[in-house]
Write a structure and sequence with these properties.
It comes from Lichenifustis flavocetrariae. This protein is α/β, with parallel strands linked by helices and 339 residues long. The protein has ten helices and 15 strands. The chain has helices at residues 42-49, 136-139, 142-156, 173-184, 196-204, 219-226, 244-250, 273-277, 290-303, 318-326, and strands spanning 2-6, 16-20, 30-39, 65-73, 85-88, 119-123, 127-129, 165-169, 188-193, 209-212, 232-237, 251-259, 281-284, 309-314, 333-337. Strands 3, 4, 5, 6, 7, 14 and 15 form a seven-stranded mixed beta sheet that branches. A six-stranded parallel beta sheet has the order 10-9-8-11-12-13, with helices on both faces. Strands 1-2 form a two-stranded antiparallel sheet.
């Protein structure tokens, strides 16, 4: 089968190498999946660059997110049949409940082999059914970006009621899924972006209040103005320490800041006084369990949510897809079509 390997981290796009590998066969309790498409995340750039906290194993297959069709099942498999459409769970050994301390040791795309291959073999308990209305390309965006947004908006923000206000930053996959889920829940969305073109696309998604942070560097003041000085109920904070101080000034007293990304850094000092004096909840948030992914997938199926896709590349141009993600100018998810 054709695949990519991570041959050496820290070498930029040359960290990935096109290889031919033996076709895998499913063992007991496993399923083999013909991967149709994968989607890229900032995490893939971190693994490639050698600055993800847990390094990949030697010659690991990259990319955590993928969807495809089950083509073989191992002995004892009862949950799935050949022909079922599935996507892989990012955490292969987190079925439900509290986040396991060793969860990152069992994540696809390094430390475990990922999805950028024609065939992969996963545990039958580590895959989730694809919503009926989604293509494989669209379904490949669900394991990390969609589930991270789901956890932030629908789980940690579960006390919010229709009419609550959510602030999203930028137009990456997590932020766009958060916008869609928040709107489906009856929440008001305020979004920031860097260009007029992206602002128009956000408005086309139904976002009425868009703040251009290039034109309005003190965007937290505009957020306060838009909320009559009260602040938003929740912030989807994907920037890290470069944007976190503004997010803390944008949220209401007793509100929630979901810290998800580190795009602007993570080592800058932070003034913690707003957290203390305004009783703000600051919470690290990320991907969820298999059970949570199943609930999300059923909901996406019920409301017919369609992921926002930026670009689709073919397998042989996988490195071009990675370069596209690197330029940080995308609106939506970057996809690699395999079969």
């Amino acid at each position: 089968m054709k695949a990519f390997n991570i041959i050496e981290t820290g070498k930029g796009l040359d960290s990935w190498s096109r290889v031919d590998l033996p076709d895998p066969t499913p063992g007991p309790g496993q399923v083999s999946i013909r991967v149709k498409a994968v989607s890229l995340n900032t995490r893939d750039l971190m693994v490639m660059g050698g600055y993800f906290p847990i390094p990949p194993k030697q010659n690991a297959i990259p990319v955590s997110d993928g969807a495809g069709e089950i083509v073989a099942v191992g002995a004892g498999v009862t949950r799935w049949n050949v022909g079922d459409r599935v996507f892989g769970s990012y955490y292969q050994q987190w079925p439900h409940g509290q986040f396991p301390a060793d969860a990152e040791l069992h994540a696809l795309g390094g430390p475990l082999d990922g999805m950028l291959a024609e065939l992969v073999t996963l545990s039958e308990s580590g895959v989730v059914r694809v919503p009926d209305h989604l293509s494989y390309e669209e379904a490949s965006t669900l394991p990390v970006a969609a589930l991270t947004a789901w956890n932030a908006v629908m789980e940690s923000g579960g006390r919010m009621t229709p009419g609550a206000t959510v602030l999203t930053l930028g137009t990456g996959g997590v932020s766009l899924f958060a916008i869609q889920l928040a709107q489906a829940s009856g929440f008001r969305v305020i979004a920031t972006t860097s260009s007029q073109a992206k602002a128009e696309r956000l408005r086309a998604l139904g976002v009425s209040d868009v703040v251009n942070y290039k034109h309005t560097p003190n965007w937290e003041q505009e957020v306060l103005r838009l909320t009559n000085g009260q602040g938003v109920d929740q912030v989807i904070e994907v920037g890290g320490t470069g944007t976190l101080p503004k997010s803390l000034r944008s949220v209401r007293s007793g509100g929630l800041v979901n810290l998800i990304g580190l795009l602007t850094g993570f080592n800058d000092p932070i003034d913690t006084s707003p957290i203390l004096f305004n009783k703000i909840r600051l919470q690290g948030s990320g991907v969820g369990s298999v059970q949570t992914a199943e609930v999300m997938a059923r909901t996406i199926n019920a409301i017919k949510l369609k992921p926002v896709v930026s670009d689709v590349f073919d397998f042989e141009n996988a490195k071009h897809a990675l370069a596209k993600l690197q330029d940080a100018a995308t609106f939506g998810k970057v996809i690699i079509r395999i079969n």
